[in-house]
Design brief:
Blueprint (H helix, E strand, L loop, with lengths): L3 E5 L4 E4 L5 E3 L3 E3 L3 E4 L15 E3 L3 H12 L4 E7 L9 H16 L5 E6 L9 H13 L2 E4 L4 E5 L4 E4 L4 E3 L2 E5 L1 E4 L1 H5 L11 E2 L13 E3 L4 E2 L6 H19 L12 E8 L2 E7 L8 E5 L3 E5 L4 H16 L21
Parallel strand pairs: 4-16, 6-13, 7-8, 7-13, 8-9, 15-17
Antiparallel strand pairs: 1-2, 2-3, 5-14, 10-11, 11-12, 18-19, 20-21
């Protein structure tokens, strides 16, 4: 095994880093994912890293934060998203709502101030969901600091500073660092030119507009949708049939609509559910059947929590074994209220 040093799409080959060998291809499928880069934010990954500043998008960060919270006696906890897009865009919201629940159970919630500092104009990317999720956070006494574009972290004074010179002090900072695609994309000159190392593709077929034999799947693709597991799953359903037709020189009939579907744990044995695509923002309603559900959209319920627990079982016992998920790749408007 060897990492790839560079992709040379003009020559239909990739160069291996280990021994310099070239691998020729007729078709290339890129699925290099995304990773966090705390080193990109000044002051973030310095002497307070995993002391008063933590991430939870890595195993090491999550375990270190878990250990820290065992004996934390309270103060101001700030959850900050450095920049979008990020893997699983609801994860920071889920974390801070579960933190609210955790501190209630520990009997110290009255000694904890929770702040969610996000570069978005509200709690979420779309207005209806942002309003509803913002209302839920407000009920939980979680303050949202919108349009906070972090410029630097001052680990000595324990504060984060935005480009418009706003400052938020913290006792404990939980960060979602900058997410970027694999560096091989930038080295190969296949990125969108924004320094984030994602590959531009047709958002419906995942075919590169520049190279007719290159597809890009999952988080590596520069498409206007969530970098979430459900997106990758539904996209692959579309891609598989399209790819077979494409290599046979046939027109690709199937178009991915940007479908994303996600349960969000909100604490106290409840959860939310969102279902949306490129053109339809998360809406209230019932899922998957109108008027019946059993899951509520954009509303907390115990059934949504059990839906997530059920999906967790399906993930480990069905999806990872290669079996199909009994959900259509194309989003349905059934049960949604405009």
């Amino acid at each position: 095994m060897s990492p790839i040093e560079v992709i040379e799409p003009e020559h239909n080959r990739v160069k291996l880093a280990k021994d310099g060998r070239y691998l020729d291809y007729d078709f290339l499928v890129i699925a290099t994912g995304a990773r966090t880069h705390p080193e990109e934010t000044p002051g973030l990954q310095e002497h307070e890293w995993h002391k008063s500043i933590y991430d939870f998008y890595t195993v090491e960060g999550a375990l270190a934060l878990q250990k820290h919270l065992r004996n934390w006696e309270g103060g101001r906890l700030v959850v900050n998203v450095v920049e979008n897009p990020i893997k699983c865009p609801v994860a920071p919201l889920e974390f801070i709502m579960l933190a609210d629940w955790f501190f209630h159970e520990q009997g110290i919630r009255d000694r904890v101030e929770l702040i969610y500092a996000t570069p978005l104009p509200g709690a979420f990317t779309k207005p209806i969901a942002s309003k509803q999720l913002g209302h839920i956070l407000d009920e939980k006494n979680i303050k949202v600091e919108p349009e906070f574009m972090v410029m630097e972290v001052n680990p000595d004074e324990k504060k984060i500073v935005s480009y418009d010179e706003r400052e938020i002090e913290y006792d404990l900072l939980v960060t979602v660092p900058l997410n970027k695609g694999d560096e091989v994309i930038g080295r190969s000159g296949m990125d969108a030119g924004d320094g984030l190392n994602y590959v531009p593709v047709d958002k419906h077929t995942f075919l590169s507009p520049t190279y007719g034999n290159v597809f890009v799947l999952g988080d590596a693709a520069a498409v206007p949708t969530s970098k979430a597991g459900s997106v990758a799953h539904f996209a692959v359903d579309i891609f598989a049939e399209n790819f077979v037709r494409h290599i046979d020189g046939l027109e690709m009939h199937h178009k991915f609509d940007g479908h994303a579907n996600c349960f969000i744990e909100s604490g106290f044995g409840k959860g939310l559910l969102i279902d949306f695509n490129y053109d339809v923002e998360p809406l209230p309603g019932r899922y998957p059947l109108p008027g019946v559900g059993p899951f509520k959209l954009l509303e907390e319920s115990e059934m949504n929590h059990w839906g997530k627990m059920m999906f967790r079982w399906m993930y480990w016992n069905i999806l990872l074994k290669g079996a199909e998920l009994p959900l259509p790749a194309k989003m349905s408007m059934s049960g949604k209220w405009r």
